[in-house]
Amino acid sequence: MLIPWHAPEKQLSLQFMQTSKAAIILHLQLVRSYAFCPSCGTQSTHLHSHYYRFLFDLSSGTQHIKIHLKSRKWFCDESFCPRKIFTERFSWVKPYTRRTDRLQVLLRRIAFSMGCRQAEQVIRPFLPSISHDTFLRLIRATRIELPTTTAIGLDDFAFCKGHRYGTLICDLIAHRPIAILPERTGEIIENWLKQHPNIQLISRDGSKTYREAITKTNPKIQQISDRWHLLKNAKKHWGNG
Ligand SMILES: [Zn+2]
Fold this sequence. Notes:
By secondary structure, the protein is an alpha/beta fold. The protein contains six helices and twelve strands. It has helices at residues 101-111, 116-123, 132-141, 186-195, 208-217, 227-240; strands at 12-19, 23-30, 35-36, 43-44, 47-60, 63-75, 85-87, 151-160, 164-171, 176-181, 201-204, 222-225.
């Protein structure tokens, strides 16, 4: 049976395949008889042992693609190398993860395109094991380059409504999130601003905590009310008037 699955590495060999209405399980292994030590780069043909990894890949329609990957361990025979045994590396999946790189890329794009609960609903027909917490972890684990921007927007959001809040910081020039802080306290804002002395303008809500933290760290930063809160307050004022 042919399946529309594109192998991420040429030297992968399909040993056998299991299919069901919900999933396709591919049993794969590398065909080459050597590996390179990740510490010293020496090629090894001295096999130690093997074990199996269970991975998720991009879905094929509504069928989940799971990979049962044989992963081998090798001896490094280079005398000066501190690593005596190593696990072979794959170009398409990182060690200690359960999702292929291309699946991670897709999930990350979805995570940064919408709210995490909405993302969970979008992905559920294809990968029911992915929760909104998975998307949150992906966002937190994404390395974001230090901003060169001078203008940011900051607002609080709920990790758990009524219990725990964080702060989202967005680059107002590039229109993208650049940091998620685990709290909304003045101290954490001050610390972040001290690490980013290039900031000149901040759009924020009416939070006294934010205002005082910004003023305390750098009184020269121009603070403006963000559009959403400005309109909300204007509407409230007109409503009362
Ligand atoms: Zn080595």
